[in-house]
Predict the structure.
Amino acid sequence: MTELSLASIDWLRANIVWFTIVLALSFAAVPALLARRDRDSASRSATLVFPLNMSPWTGVLIGAAIVAWMALSVAWEDFTYWDNGIFFGPLRGDTQYYPPPIWPHGGRFFPLSHQEFAWQSIVDGSGVFYHLVASLQLIIACLAATAVTGAQRNLAILLIIGLVGAPSIAHVFLGLIYPERNTIFLFSIHFVFLLNYLKGGNHWSILIAIAVALPTIFYKETSFIIPAVMGFVLVTAAIGPANLIGGAIGRRRLLIAGVPLMAMSIAFILYYVVGISTIVDTSYATVRSRSIEEIFYNIATQSWGWLLLLSICTRVWVVVRYKRGLDPFWDGMALAALVYALSFVVLQLINTQYMAPVAFIAWIYSVRLAIEVESIFNRQLGHRFFVGALALAAVLQLGPTVNNIQKRKELIHSKASAARFVANYALASDVGTPGRPLYLHPLPGRKFSGGLFGGFVEAKYGTHVVVVVPGGPPDELQPCLGVTPVLCDPDHPIEPGELVIALGPGQANRLSDRPDLRLVFTSEGIGFWRNRQRVSVFVAE
């Protein structure tokens, strides 16, 4: 079984893009053909509503916000942030390529992640172009969200602010490397065409909806949860009691939409069980273990967390109080978001990027529910309270988002300027060649961050460096993501002329009193605020 699993992983790593395309079209073909013959009694005239009936000034404000976001995404950016080894190829002038991330011994499986950069680099392999593509993805996702909810005017603006201002969503679209960026983009398109099919029965809509849903599964191992749960709800509504369903969606249409979603999710689970879990020696939860209390606290303090809970409770109250039936699409989306959030507890995930898809769904669902509440209360106290909760959530999350972006921009700018200084220092000292490498000692002494900084210096400036960190047996060279050798030697002395890099805030203070080190460089600030994320360089004497 192990040999078979390894062989299947190698095959998938080499053919993942074409495999996904063929599989997606195969899954989508049958429901599209069935939908073409669909003679359901539901109205075929239903169309999705874009929020176009807004004032000119509102359009100007939204357009200005889009331009501002695109400018922000490329300002003070370089390939010097976390996991930047993905982009070392273009920095060297090579073709962009990163092996599909399938790491069975770490319990990770998201083979489509980062593969889009190779396709984008055909046009332009620069960081500016990559960020502009990510900005375009976010804009499309926001427009799709307003279309699928039918939000107009104030609610449409509030929805866009909520989506762009969410800390996790801003994090993944600025960070480029996170698979959640693509899952949000693809799910937004999936929701539009799935709802369009359920309302109108167009066979092209279900083909696109199913074809787009499958790649999202292969972008992240947890992404299957959303199509799996939504497919389960659609099928349950189709085979359940007649009074379970609200609206005019026919059973046949629900089955045509739901069965492929469940099938592709089951296929993914089976592949993971057979191909991955059989050779996993360390689970992902073990690698990044967190307490359940910490995870629940993190979810509860996020705007999307309590907003999703409020929306689900409100929806349950509406169903019970006003005897409304199940809405397979919207209630399935809410249940999918809830299950996705609970997966954080099972897998012990707490990082910001993991929460982006559920934050995206929580905002879409909450705005849609605000429209339903408006139809019930006719803009009375109940509706005002719910819209006020949406506005409060949007405002509360802006502070953390601005703070995170500020830290990111400062650190990227500081690392880039420090790398430029290191390259110039090596040139002036006549080192930085394979025969005479420049030794770097990063603080904090972490192999990962230090190795990536050294790798960036090599990739961008051609300066040969050796990064030295404590730990491990003496004289052992260990690769950091396969891009930079890192010398793990606790007894390696700092020789005169070698550099010590303080990469973290406050690290320079630990070195300022050492008589054997001389401060030679501190990165400049961006200039618009008090910069705390500075990188300092010391030379050994």
Remarks:
- The chain is about 60% helix and 5% strand.
- Confidence is low (pLDDT under 50) at residues 40-45.
- Strands lie at 102-103, 108-109, 438-443, 465-469, 476-480, 484-488, 499-502, 517-522, 536-540.
- The radius of gyration is 26 Å.
